[in-house]
Known about the structure:
By secondary structure, the protein is mainly alpha-helical. It has helices spanning 5-9, 16-23, 35-55, 62-75, 77-90, 107-116.
Amino acid sequence: MEQLRPFVEKLPDFFKPWGEEILLRYFDFEGRTSRETYWHVFLNSIIIGLVLSALCVIPVIGVIAGIVDGLYGLATLIPGIAITVRRLNDSGKSWPYIFFGLIPCVGWIILLVFMLQPSAD
């Protein structure tokens, strides 16, 4: 993924953490991601997803925007899991804690609490 580094360096400062964590560390399940970086990347992904979803309601480009939105979701699935695992590592939890997110109704709340915890030293 190092061939993407020139592209990431040209991104606006607000989107650089997203580029570094999603594009350059695509399959990296090792290491750590700080709380600040995790939530910055999360916010960037929400903004990109909302813009693509909003474009879906425009009659002429809605179908194309819908396809791009779906492809974006698929393309960020693995790095999204990877950054969550790295954030769990940073908060002192091991990777299997990600499965708490699969518990109906309360799983995402448990995972949210883990994501909000400070870094463990």
